[in-house]
Amino acid sequence: MPSLRRSSFSCLIGIFVCLLGAPAGAGAADREREPFFPRAGNVGYDALRYDVELFFRPRNDSIRATARIGALAEQQLARFSLDLFGLEVSAVEVDGEPARFTRGRGKLKVRPRAPIRRGAEFTVTVRYRGQPETVTDPDGGHEGWIKTNDGAVVLGEPQGTAAWLPCNNVPADKALFQIALDVPARLKGISNGRLLQVERRQDRRVYTWREASPMSPYLAVIDIGRGRLLEQRIAGRPSWTLIDPLLEKWSLPILAELGEVIRFQERVFGPYPFETAGSIVDYAPGVGYALETQSRPIYLFVPDLTTMVHETAHQYFGNSVGLQRWPDIWLNEGFATWAQWYYAERHDGRGAREIFRTLYRVPAADAEFWEPPSGHPGSAKHLFSTSTYVRGAMALEALRIKVGTKPMLRVLRSWVAAHPYGSATIKLFIAHAEQVTGEDLGPLFQRWLYQRGKP
Ligand SMILES: [Zn+2]
């Protein structure tokens, strides 16, 4: 996320002065409850695919949509629920049969005409409309549906996708997504993955996008607005980029570096995990962060190179190797931040070791810097704390200092290869690192990830 979510860590490559302005389970019955967002997620099924058509009316910032959700019943289901914030649901069908439904705090509760048997695949069709809401996170950040001067930007980490799509809104329940955006002809609509077609309907255009690799709901993105939709090949794969005209001139030279960023990371971490690439840049003052939306990160400011490196690294760490639970966010943010340091090291910037040494001089009394420990953020409010990123990246550099650069890179590369399109935990990572290096790393990770105060 936000990568730089809530903050701009760009200058970390230099030093951490800008930090002052900073900060800003699985699919089913056997899934552990999500500790940070206990109301998110639903039991009894595994979502397999979302196919949504969304008609957008900018005049009153409203949508009219139909979502078809394919799922696998993991137990017999006399009823089930989906996460959905606000909006007016007009009809629900299960396998083509009308179903009864009710609404409850953040939920759409469905009772099919007959129970769905365990092991069956079924399709839920939901028709809904209204003005989708902007979600304010426990840390004060904004996500969900955000109106812009020329359309909307739609972000999901960690909870916002339920503002526009009925879904099983936990990171571990990954699914395939097809998103069709019906927008006025003067606007463009972009989302994740491949552009399948652009259909002309009088004064409207329908942009249909498909993400072909399993995706956590929070990584879905929509951006609607003015701008040129660029179709290119970047690092050998089809790529689409949409840039708000207000930011285009300054953004283009940075975005042109994406090919080199991907190629570098392929050499370091292994094959880029997704079939498409590209970028989205939109003008949304007041949002202030970038997000690693799958296959196509979004920047709500003129991107800089190190932020692009961070968001691209998330395609491996966070998107392909996903989270089982939000408290393990270090696996995303610590890794993407370390990837920025390593990129700088190999491209005439400061070495990661030097950044580590400089940061290690921050006094223990600076609790904001060292707390909470990266492996134990404690609550949703601290999910995207400075320490999640910076102390988190220092933990990886500490691993590198202990085991050496080559073994450290072997750990990262084999970690990506071991969990493609999956969901992992910190515990699994520690076991993996010990297995690859043959070292006892328990004390090191205990100190860097879990110990209170300066390690
Ligand atoms: Zn990030």
Span between termini: 25 Å
| Helix content bin | 25-40%
Tally of separate helices: 10
Strand order, main sheet: write it out.
5-4-8-2-1-12-15-14
Largest sheet: 8 strands, mixed
Small ligands present: zinc ion
Low-confidence stretches: 4-30
Count of individual beta strands: 23
Protein described:
By secondary structure, the chain is an alpha+beta fold. Helix content is 25%, strand content 31%. The protein contains ten helices and 23 strands. The protein has helices at residues 248-255, 258-269, 305-316, 330-345, 352-360, 367-370, 386-403, 405-418, 426-437, 442-450; strands spanning 45-57, 62-73, 80-83, 88-94, 97-98, 100-104, 107-111, 121-130, 134-136, 142-148, 151-155, 175-184, 188-190, 194-201, 204-215, 222-225, 228-234, 237-243, 277-281, 290-291, 298-299, 321-323, 422-424. The strands form five sheets. It has an eight-stranded mixed beta sheet, with no helix packed on it. A five-stranded antiparallel beta sheet has the order 9-10-11-16-13, with no helix packed on it. α3 crosses α4 (330-345) and α4 (330-345) packs across α7. It is globular. Bound molecules: zinc ion. Residues 1-3, 5, 292, 310, 314, 333, 336 line the site of zinc ion.
